[in-house]
């Protein structure tokens, strides 16, 4: 067996000098920490300089032009879905690796839908990101932009109990699409960021559900005063737009159909208050607004007209001095530009959004476009700022994908390559209408093209059926359509899951 032992020793020696395989989309400028010769046992290896990290450099001749997309909202995802990956490499930078189907997000807060039913992975929306050698997704934030150099500065997202130090890198682009969305508006009211929960992301819905079920269980503990029970089970929603109304409707339906049956000891304490400075659903038809007010009041939602002045840990203070105690506070008062959008060295539209022209280009810089809630028409176009709606963002993403595909086919995909391209059909938005659910098989459908225009306006069970059918068809993948349909069916038969996990 001596020959067998010798063979094992030779194989082990061969493995010890094999170079490690480096497979990474970024370019490393120094790899000297890897050596083909093992260091002698009696010698201490010399300290090696740190690896220099340079990111993604400019595309080379023979490579496809690179489109960098900032954001994974409605606009950015619809753009990536429509881009021709035979023409472009696609690089997406975002702090989340999925798209949220926001119209159904309120349903996840009370267990009508599972959270995965409203989240679509980016790799399913644009498969090239997962399989093409020049296309990537980076879980990172954009922290800066140098449009003259065609560079995006990024920083990795880290969180957890022991977060890693953020890693900074740069990406060169041939075409850049800014689809950073917007942030919830707090109007500078003190305490909102610390004590309120927004409803724009899946983790927001998870936190609302966790807080709601926790308060239900705490209120049932022996010795809790009636005053404290009333506070714990008082759910306050600030903002009477579609999101605030839909969440209030879902919550009231949850209370009527599930909580009162399974938490009989505290069923008389839980209630919902919706606070709005003006009229709820101000963009809807007057008849539909009155119907919504009647239905919400009938289902137990208390409507209060007022302006929030201050937010404390357990109560909010209105401008007339009224104090409203709460156990759960959900903030849904509209959106505005994020600090990053405000800091970008680009022209701005009225309201602080990134300014764009009729073709969604950012004026005065080359190869930069902006779509979605973070963009608005510059004053020279004479066009009004479009509302921050999913259908606006989706339509802009589809339009820009087609435009970039035409530019690429015409040979203008490279950086500064579209200077001579003749832009023809500008972006035109046509409003398709609005919908909102009120819970308890009631909804609103307003198909008017504008607030003062004429068109079909429906309310009641028929509208609820149209609402569900429309959104089921708009869910991006068949997988998630199946999840949503199954969730609706099981909720109808068995009720909502109120387990706290």
UniProtKB/TrEMBL annotation:
Q: How the protein sits in the membrane?
A: Peripheral membrane protein
The principal location of this protein is mitochondrion
Q: Does the keyword Zinc apply?
A: no
Q: Which UniProt keywords apply?
A: FAD, Flavoprotein, Membrane, Mitochondrion, Mitochondrion inner membrane, NAD, NADP, Oxidoreductase, Peroxisome, Transit peptide
Q: Which reaction(s) does the protein catalyse, per the Swiss-Prot or TrEMBL entry?
A: a ubiquinone + NADH + H(+) = a ubiquinol + NAD(+); a quinone + NADH + H(+) = a quinol + NAD(+)
Q: Which residues form the signal peptide?
A: none
Residue span of region Disordered: 39-60
Task: Name the EC number(s).
Answer: 1.6.5.9
- Annotated localization: Mitochondrion inner membrane; Peroxisome
What the entry lists under Gene3D superfamilies is as follows: 3.50.50.100
Broad class of enzyme this protein falls into: oxidoreductase
Q: Which GO terms describe its molecular function?
A: NADH dehydrogenase (quinone) (non-electrogenic) activity
Q: Which Pfam families match?
A: NDH2_C, Pyr_redox_2
Q: FAD/NAD(P)-binding domain: from which residue to which, for each copy?
A: 66-397
The residues covered by the External alternative NADH-ubiquinone oxidoreductase-like C-terminal domain are: 431-497
How is this protein annotated for GO cellular component? mitochondrial inner membrane; peroxisome
Reported cofactor(s) = FAD
Keyword match Nucleotide-binding: no
This chain's function reads:
Alternative NADH-ubiquinone oxidoreductase which catalyzes the oxidation of mitochondrial NADH does not translocate protons across the inner mitochondrial membrane.
PANTHER family to which the protein is assigned, alphabetical: NADH DEHYDROGENASE (PTHR43706), NADH DEHYDROGENASE-RELATED (PTHR43706:SF13)
The UniProt family comment states: Belongs to the NADH dehydrogenase family.
Protein name in UniProt: NADH:ubiquinone reductase (non-electrogenic)
Organism per entry: Prunus avium (Cherry)
């Amino acid at each position: 067996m001596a020959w067998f032992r010798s063979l094992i020793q030779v194989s082990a020696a061969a493995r010890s000098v094999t170079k490690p395989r480096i497979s990474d989309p970024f370019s490393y400028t120094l790899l000297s920490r890897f050596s083909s010769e093992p260091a002698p046992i009696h010698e201490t290896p010399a300290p090696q300089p740190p690896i220099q990290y340079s990111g993604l450099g400019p595309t080379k001749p023979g490579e496809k032009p690179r489109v960098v997309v900032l954001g994974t909202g409605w606009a950015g995802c619809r753009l990536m879905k429509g881009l021709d990956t035979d023409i472009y490499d696609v690089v997406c930078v975002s702090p989340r690796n999925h798209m949220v189907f926001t119209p159904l997000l309120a349903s996840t807060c009370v267990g009508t839908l599972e959270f995965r039913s409203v989240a679509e992975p980016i790799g399913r929306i644009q498969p090239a990101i997962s399989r093409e050698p020049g296309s990537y997704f980076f879980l990172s934030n954009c922290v800066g932009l140098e449009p003259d150099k065609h560079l995006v500065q990024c920083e990795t997202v880290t969180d957890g109990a022991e977060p890693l130090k953020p890693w900074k890198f740069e990406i060169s682009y041939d075409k850049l699409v800014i689809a950073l969305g917007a942030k919830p508006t707090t109007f500078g009211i003190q305490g909102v960021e610390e004590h309120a929960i927004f409803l724009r992301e899946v983790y927001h819905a998870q936190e609302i559900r966790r807080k709601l079920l926790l308060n239900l269980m705490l209120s049932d503990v022996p010795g809790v005063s009636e005053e404290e029970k009333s506070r714990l089970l008082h759910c306050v929603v600030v903002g009477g737009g579609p999101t605030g109304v839909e969440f209030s409707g879902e919550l009231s339906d949850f209370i009527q159909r599930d909580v009162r049956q399974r938490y009989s000891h505290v069923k008389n304490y839980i209630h919902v208050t919706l606070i709005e400075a003006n009229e709820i659903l101000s963009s809807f038809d007057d008849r539909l607004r009155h119907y919504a007010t009647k239905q919400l009041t009938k289902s137990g939602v208390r409507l209060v007209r007022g302006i929030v002045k201050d937010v404390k840990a357990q109560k909010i203070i209105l401008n007339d001095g009224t104090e409203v105690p709460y156990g759960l506070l959900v903030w849904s008062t509209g959106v505005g530009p994020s600090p990053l959008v405000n800091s970008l060295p680009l022209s701005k539209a009225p309201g602080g959004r990134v300014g764009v022209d009729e073709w969604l280009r950012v004026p005065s810089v080359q190869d930069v476009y902006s779509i979605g809630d973070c963009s608005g028409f510059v004053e020279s176009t004479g066009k009004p700022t479009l509302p921050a709606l999913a259908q606006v963002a989706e339509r802009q993403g589809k339009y820009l994908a087609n435009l970039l595909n035409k530019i690429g086919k015409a040979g203008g995909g490279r950086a500064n390559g579209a200077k001579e391209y003749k832009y023809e059909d500008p972006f035109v938005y046509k409003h398709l209408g609005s919908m909102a659910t009120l819970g308890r098989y009631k909804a609103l459908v307003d198909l008017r093209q504008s607030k003062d225009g004429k068109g079909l306006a429906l309310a009641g069970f028929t509208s609820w059926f149209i609402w569900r059918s429309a959104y089921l068809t708009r869910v991006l993948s068949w997988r998630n359509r199946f999840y949503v349909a199954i969730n609706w069916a099981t909720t109808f038969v068995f009720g909502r899951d109120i387990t706290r996990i």
